[in-house]
């Protein structure tokens, strides 16, 4: 779903008004890993203003909208008990993106995609030590550990991370994440996406309005998820992420979204 807002309302219990005065919102694609909606100006969890009585409806809009399958509302401040009635504002993703029912993780985080299916142009080793190799197959969303992402040997726009989906899939979106190398924050700030059916001939994803190669906004820190939905989904077996801009070193953790359709 593409969610653009929320309406909240309190209630009355035994003659006494009860309502949520302030709250946070978290969202997820899989129902397990949740991300709190952020205040872009402060880079902190957004605290939404709730109700001031039990009967009036309070509307808050999400700017930018949320793409999610699961939503959680976390009360921060309540009047008496935390009592809530609510409605979500939004639509099926296909209204905007033609991706309804096709935005499931394709297997990077879950390991449905095997290590052998993930390759890269080069690999970096911290201090040149084999034990601190940032392998391509470490590029799994939310991977933990000392070396928990893919890092390229060189910083340059010829570097790439490649995922072989084994069969042609409908790819509707991507989630990226940076990492930290012994205190050094590293991430990809912008990137291109290319796709292929044979791993040899590649097509760069294009901006539907300008027909130029689309440059996607990436991460701004080492831990947050940055999701981009493809306005026009594509069908492919192979997907490449091509870094264009980065902080410190080219470092990626990633999940692809789509379905078998």
From TrEMBL:
It holds the Pfam family F5_F8_type_C. One of its GO terms (molecular function) is signaling receptor activity. GO terms for cellular component: plasma membrane. Keywords: Disulfide bond. SUPFAM superfamilies: Galactose-binding domain-like (SSF49785). It comes from the Eukaryota. The keyword Cell inner membrane does not apply. CDD domains: FA58C. Residues 1-91, 102-259 form the F5/8 type C domain. PANTHER family: COAGULATION FACTOR VIII, F5/8 TYPE C DOMAIN-CONTAINING PROTEIN. This is Milk fat globule-EGF factor 8 protein. The lineage of its organism: Eukaryota, Metazoa, Chordata, Craniata, Vertebrata.
């Amino acid at each position: 779903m593409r969610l653009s807002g929320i309406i909240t309302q309190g209630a009355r219990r035994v003659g006494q008004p009860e309502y949520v005065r302030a709250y946070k919102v978290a969202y997820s694609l899989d129902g397990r890993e949740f991300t709190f909606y952020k205040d872009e100006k402060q880079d902190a969890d957004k605290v939404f203003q709730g109700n001031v009585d039990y009967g009036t409806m309070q509307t808050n809009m999400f700017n930018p909208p949320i793409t999610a399958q699961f939503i959680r509302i976390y009360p921060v401040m309540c009047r008496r008990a935390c009592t809530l009635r609510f409605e979500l504002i939004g639509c099926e993703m296909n209204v905007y993106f033609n991706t309804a029912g096709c935005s499931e993780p394709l297997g990077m985080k879950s390991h449905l995609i095997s290590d052998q299916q993930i390759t890269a142009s080069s690999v970096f080793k911290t201090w040149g030590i084999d034990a601190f190799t940032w392998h391509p197959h470490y590029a799994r969303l939310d991977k933990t550990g000392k070396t928990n992402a893919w890092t390229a040997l060189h910083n340059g726009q010829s570097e790439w991370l490649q995922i072989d989906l084994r069969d042609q899939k409908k790819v509707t979106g991507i989630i990226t994440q940076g990492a930290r190398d012994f205190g050094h924050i590293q991430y990809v700030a912008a990137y291109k996406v290319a796709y292929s059916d044979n791993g040899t001939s590649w097509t760069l994803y294009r901006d539907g309005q300008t027909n130029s190669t689309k440059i996607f906004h990436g991460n701004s820190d080492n831990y947050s998820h940055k999701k981009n939905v493809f306005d026009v989904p594509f069908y492919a077996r192979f997907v490449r992420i091509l870094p264009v801009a980065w902080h410190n070193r080219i470092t990626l953790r990633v999940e692809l979204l789509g379905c078998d359709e």
